[in-house]
Amino acid sequence: MAVLTFGSSSDLKYVLVLVLCFCLSCDARFKGFRRFGVQSEATQHRRGADVVDYWFTQRLDHFNGADTRVWKQRYFINDSFYRPGGPVFLMIGGEGPANPAWMQYGTWLTYAEKLGALCFLLEHRFYGKSHPTEDLSTSNLRFLSSRQALADLAHFRAVLAEGRGLGASRWVVFGGSYPGSLAAWFRLKYPHLAHAAIATSAPIHATVNFPEYLEVVWRSLASYSSECPLLVKKASDTLSQMLKNPLLYSNITRDFQLCSPLQLDSFMDSAHFLEALAGNFMDVVQYNQDNRAFEGVVGTNITIKVLCDVMADASLGGVYERYAAVSRLMLHTLSQRCLDPRYSAFLHDITNTSWSGPGPAAGRQWVYQTCTEFGFYQSTDSPNQPFTGFPLPYHLQQCEDIFNMSAGGVEVCVRDTNECYGGYGLRATRIVFPNGSIDPWHALSVTQDLSTAMPAIFIKGTAHCANMYPARAEDLPQLGLARDHVYLLLQQWLKE
After folding, report:
1. Nearest CA to 300 among 309, 290, 311?
2. Mind listing the pLDDT tens digit for each residue in 136-187?
3. Dihedral sign, CA of 460, 466, 471, 472?
4. Is the dihedral of CA 342, 279, 177, 100 positive or negative?
5. Other CB atoms within 10 Å distance of the CB of residue 133
6. Which of 23, 198, 63 is nearest to 143 (CA)?
7. d(Cα 415, Cα 186) in Å, to the nearest integer?
8. CA separation for the pair 77, 211 (Å, rounded)
């Protein structure tokens, strides 16, 4: 196993007031793969102003020959490094708009320049501008799945290879997070179309309940200060007890800068509020110190150190007051006026089926995929994590409320996903799995070699998809070594 040692990082003094400028395409309550500081499509296009949108005619349903409907799928091209006979790199889009900035920045382009590769990025169906159907109704979302997405990739690859004379070229697929899973699964399911896969931070095992996510959050907070997760747990427990006393609601409304007076009418209301506050820490841990500024994300200076220093600052008051200070800091960071903790408001947004409505920003498509394929529910069911109040039934109830899908149905779908792809038992060749120790998603990925042809690169001290982002001087040494390791594997595999 390629395990790289942890190195120290320079300390940064935290401040409670930060001057930040960016737009947000979804709030901190985005389900599944957390979305701290995600940029709007308008911001994305400013960052990738020279990147042209191309459109590919794609089938709506790859598994029903009687259905001849088609739609237009967006993709990008960078041919500036291509040398005749060179490989083709295909970056896989994921659960959000494809960002054209990736056609100008990122480690994969460093590899492309060295290897003379032609680069494509294909946006995932039902995300960004790739709209296969007229709306996001549940009946239309049946065409949203990882299996359909893989078939999209296969058809795209086959047609472009033929049309551009790239049939003899070796294609390498790249992806990070859910697209990292797709990269591994594409190599598994379509080995004749993908010569190799770089599957970064890729959860390959589907599971309904994923309490290990918050266990890693605990350990990642403790990597900076052993006291930090204890303080967070004490604060979360304190707030949970306070929510049982309606006489304290006015204080909570003020302290956490809520959009309206706190009102808890059900278990779902309190769970949703507690999850939103925990999300402040979950988001920051997942992307801790990642070099994401090129994407249009400017809140990356909010790190584990910043949050833990706030939680340790006795001048702010007790742990409850410090927890509230973190929430206000994150609202300011995300340019949000206030926090709306109402579960009813979340349901109102996420059940909107219009492409132009609040559904996509609330994560409607991704929540559908978690209910029908993956689970991945980051519950508080483990005692070895710092939060309280949003157990597995809270997450499963959302599948029922949004898509009329029972808990039993979710369990069947998750089982089917592992049967389809193999889960931890995935068997293929020429797939590498880079992961960061800080990133909670490594708990569902590959951190030890599955075989000599499926190595793992476990990078101590780094977070989600860190090796994919552009290199910078302050990167940990082991992160640079991980990028070099991937390049050496590419060199080796392209010769095979």
Report:
1. 290
2. 999 999 999 999 999 999 999 999 999 999 999 999 999 999 999 999 999 9
3. negative
4. positive
5. 19
6. 63
7. 19
8. 39
- DSSP 8-state secondary structure symbol assigned to residue 109: H
Per residue in 194-246, pLDDT tens?
999 999 999 999 999 999 999 999 999 999 999 999 999 999 999 999 999 99
pLDDT grade, residue 301 (50/70/90)? confident
Nearest to 200 by CA among 290, 282, 295, 125: 290
The C-alpha angle with vertex 200 and arms to 411 and 370, in degrees rounded to 5, equals 20
Q: What is the mean pLDDT of residues 45-70?
A: 89
Cα 168 to Cα 186: distance, rounded to the nearest angstrom: 18
Confidence (pLDDT) at 26: 28
159 Rama class: left (phi>0) / alpha (psi -120 to 50) / beta: alpha
* Catalytic residue list: 177, 439, 464
- What is the C-alpha to C-alpha distance for residues 226 and 229, in angstroms, rounded to an integer? 7
Task: Determine the Cα–Cα distance for residues 175 and 391; give it in Å rounded to an integer.
Answer: 30
Nearest to 456, CA basis, from 436, 438, 432:
432
3-state helix, strand, coil in the chain (%, to 5): 45, 10, 45
Torsion angle of alpha carbons 175, 177, 180, 182, nearest 10°? Answer: -110
Global pTM?
0.92
The closest alpha carbon to 430, from 186, 120, 201, 177, belongs to 186
Max Cα separation, the chain? Answer: 72
Q: Are strands 70-78 and 207-209 parallel, antiparallel or unpaired?
A: unpaired
Question: What Cα–Cα distance (Å) separates residue 406 from each residue in 64, 138, 371, 411, 451?
Answer: 26, 14, 9, 9, 38
Q: Which residue has the tokens 């991704």?
A: 366
Integer-rounded Cα Rg, in Å, for the chain is 22
Residue 196 DSSP SS3: strand
Residue 299, both tokens: 């809140």
393-404 core/surface letters (b: 16 or more CB in 10 A; e: else): ebbbbbbeebbe
Tokens of 65: 């020959």
Q: What is the amino acid identity at position 200?
A: T
The predicted structure's pLDDT at residue 455: 98
**119-142 pLDDT per residue, tens:** 999 999 999 999 999 999 999 999
Listed in sequence order, the residues at least 6 apart from 402 whose beta carbon sits closer than 8 Å to its beta carbon are: 347, 350, 351, 364, 367, 368, 371
| Beta-carbon count within 10 A of 50 CB | 7
Question: Phi/psi zone of residue 126: left (φ > 0), alpha (ψ -120 to 50 degrees), beta?
Answer: left
Q: Which tokens is 426 given?
A: 């995935």
